[in-house]
Amino acid sequence: MDLNEFRRNSAEPVRRAEAGEEFTITVSGRPSARLLPAGSTHWRRWDEIADLFSGPTDPDWQHDRERIGDDLRDPSDVQ
């Protein structure tokens, strides 16, 4: 869907995206953005996601963790 077409009638593709369709919005023929249904915001039970954590552990995790300092700081506190 071209950006100009989207500007002229944005309500229709938004309704269709809510129903499950996905759109790629183009500018001068190049893909620029995607319009898709919003993701689910409900919580999952552990038994629904447990398989995500069943793989092998990262062998470099401890090494990487040791490279990070233990001090806490506010990332918005720019000096």
Quick summary:
The protein has 79 residues and is α+β, with helices and mostly antiparallel strands. The chain has helices at residues 3-8, 11-18, 46-49, 61-66, and strands at 23-27, 30-35. The model has no long low-confidence stretch (mean pLDDT 88).
Task: Provide the low-confidence segments as ranges.
Answer: none
Question: What gross morphology would you assign?
Answer: extended
Radius of gyration: 22 Å
Strand tally is 2
Fraction in helix:
25-40%
Largest sheet descriptor: 2 strands, antiparallel
Number of helical stretches of at least 4 residues: 4
- Spatial strand arrangement across the major sheet: 1-2
How many angstroms does the end-to-end distance come to?
Answer: 45 Å
The overall pLDDT average reads: 88
SS-based class:
alpha+beta
Strand content: 5-15%
Order of helices and strands: HHEEHH
Features:
single chain, alpha+beta, 2 strands
SSE order and pairing:
Layout: H1 3-8, H2 11-18, E1 23-27, E2 30-35, H3 46-49, H4 61-66
Antiparallel strand pairs: 1-2
What can you tell me about this protein's structure?
The protein has 79 residues and is an alpha+beta fold. It has a domain at 1-38. The chain is built from four helices and two strands. It has helices at residues 3-8, 11-18, 46-49, 61-66, and strands spanning 23-27, 30-35. It has a two-stranded antiparallel ribbon with strand order 1-2. A hairpin with a 2-residue loop joins strand 1 and strand 2 (30-35). The relative contact order is 0.11.
